[in-house]
Amino acid sequence: MRLRYSVMAASIPSFYLNSHQISSKIHLNPTLNISKFPQKSIEIPSIGGICKRGSLSEAFQSLSELFKNQSRTQFSLDDAYSSVLELCGSKKAFWEGQQIHAHAEKVFDGTPHRTVFTWNAMIGAYVTNGEPLSSLELYREMRVSGIRLDAFTFPCILKACGMLKDRSRGAEIHGLAIKEGYISVVFVANSVVGMYTKCKDLHGARQVFDRMTEREDVVSWNSMISAYSSNGESIEALRLFGEMQKANLSPNTYTFVAALQACEDSSFIKQGMFIHAAVLKSCHYIDVFVANALIAMYARFGKMGKAANIFYSMDDRDAISWNSILSGFVQNGLYHEALQFYYYMRDAGQKPDLVAVISIVAASARLGNKLNGMEIHAYAIKNGLDSNLQVGNSLVDMYAKFCCTKQMDLVFCKMPDKDIVSWTTTIAGHAQNGSHSRALELFREVHLEGIDLDVMMISSILLACNGLKLTSSVKEIHGYIIRNGLSDLVLQNGIVDVYGEFGNVDYAAKMFELIEVKDVVSWTSMISCYVHNALANEALERFRLMKETRVEPDSICLVSILSAAASLSALSKGKEIHGFLIRKGVVLEGSLVSSLVDMYARCGTLEKSRDVFDCIRKKDLILWTSMINAYGMHGCGMAAIDLFGRMEDEGIAPDHVAFLVVLYACSHSGLMNEGRRFLEKMKHVYQLKPWPEHYACLVDLLGRANHLDEAYQFVKGMEVEPTAEVWCALLGACQNHSNKELGGIAAQKLLQMDPENPGNYVLVSNLYATERRWKDVEQVRMRMKVNGLKKNPGCSWIEVGNKVHTFMSRDNSHPHSYEIYFKLSQITEKLSREGGYVAQTKFVLHNTKEEEKVQMIYGHSERLAIAYGMITTPEGTSLRITKNLRVCGDCHEFCKLISKFFERDIVMRDANRFHHFKGGVCSCGDFW
Prior knowledge:
With 928 residues, the chain is mostly helical. 67% of the residues lie in helices and 3% in strands.
């Protein structure tokens, strides 16, 4: 639309055809007396009239006749060339136009006596042919030849200056127009305005417009409104449109189109509807250009219903009409509607063009509709559209979203031309779909091609390096970012995120502090870094600081902080976040509601987890799995199995994770037969190949039930090679049931398969310690030391007064340490006196004296947390304790006695499961 308007604003033939209308307004004597030429130079139909009818063949035939006629005049040739060249431009007949232009050059070069009309025609021909430099060079020759300019010279050379964005030369010609007195001619003034707008000098354009003595010409107003609209100054464009109406000037097609384009988003909806009303009052409501502009405007407003109404009311539609509706659906996320409209378009006989293909590829990608996407791809190939750069980039992105990296690579490799978007999209597609090595390979090719890296590409490479755990490569990329001054917020956030993934918390924190303006992603990256590295307290503190800066957390941030609260069993923090969600009216769905269910479960309030679960009407697989897992960790195996059955009844097929959590639930409830049945169901009903974790769960289940021989036979008969997880489960069971022979086999296998895991050494060491093989214990510990491995120390924590208090074994660092140990001695004394408690030193796996073993048991971290809780909370208050390791048998008995003799319910989460101690009994039934 804008292109057509600019052609109209400086069209040579229209000036010549209307020269008699404006010649009286030029105060200088014309250089050529037009009346000397005959009014009808040849006895054939007017070539201008033929061109107006739009027939190229008739125009070429008429031009040939003109050359055969010996009585032709230079004026008729000028007119003919200009008219035919303009017709070629409007018909996009570029080859034919070049032929006419070349012929015109020969005629011009062979003309001994060139008039101003001849010069103007040739200058205009160069402009029409897209050769502004040649046009200005010819203008210079014209001035050197001493030919005096007329009013028709200025539009051509001013348009050439606009095409070149040459404001200084344009201003020079503007000055000449003032000097020669032609600035008072409306079409000259309009051309000056057009030149300044093309050179992005709206102030200069407005000054010329404001000084125009005659402002009844709609073209003048259109020039300014269009200039403001196309340069993003919507308010000024609409203000000028209002002034035009106040001046009682009738807007034309170009006015309405420019004004509608100024309504760039939904904040202009009132103005847009006002213009729509003005269109309806005028005679332009049937104009296809205005209708298309209305469709595009309502699409920008998100009012696709109104856009569709206009479309279906149109008598005549062009490709822009169809594409505007199609792209409008896609831009507003109405992808199903876009697909339906595409097929309606095909059925109506409208052949989808380049724009339509790009739109429908995007819709298919967003829907994940691979079949439709491949159909469109086939259509693009059949119609030769797949070689287009934009189509190629869209197809690459589509296959990336389908996770089809092979097809994505094929499209990319077949693209004849590639730009930075092509490379970036392909690299991102590989990085996001786990093809990290291929992403790095393409990145090296980018370097060899000498292509400048952009933010998106670097972010994708960081993701690939993260996937491959290439710490050194991340540091190299970080250095590249610093050296090249790429201090983009997206990259800074990405660096924080990837350092956090690698466990380099200090690096991540330093990068975070260097970010001057932190957004929600910055804060979320740092919080996630702490959560990922088991620094939940630091994550909660960072969240508190985030709230102080008034940065609103998004759903991803809230999921991370719920995970932090869950890992600490910080119920009050979790409730605080839940309250925040309610106050903000956040819709509970997806990962957010699943995290909320998990948080309440891991904080020991299973009932609250179920309440949240029940209030969600549309439950997805992740939510069902979270609730089944909640029952499992609390030892409610039958409830977990019942819920699994309900999920199947709802038509939701379980995945690997769902089977894993139900097997976990069976394991911690001793449901051996049910566990076997679920593993068989997984393989034979749902055709899911078990992961090592599934096998480990069944081994653990059999081992806990003291079916060690069956467990060992199951391990030996596995379809796949047993992993470290499987041997670890068997070893743990052997230790619990004192099976030395199988324990030795499992210990040897475990250390062979996973020698870098300190937990495995501890498990083997404990096995040897229960057998009092102290030399072997010492050897295992020495091996750990040589390998640079350290045992995770026992740690427990309790939340009191909205603060989490952490205790290590035999800890003296707490401010109330004296009171804690004094209270603990009182508790132990009462339990010994009234409950017959005697410390079971067999659980102390150290080669030391008996008295020392007793003191070691008394100093276990969970006892310190319980004592502190009993000091700081009212009598009868439940205590919620979390421990990072499995609770020992003696502490388990100790907690049962406290719940009975002090009437304190204790909810304890250890490394394996939850223990609910009440009235001297534990919910685990001493099976953990």
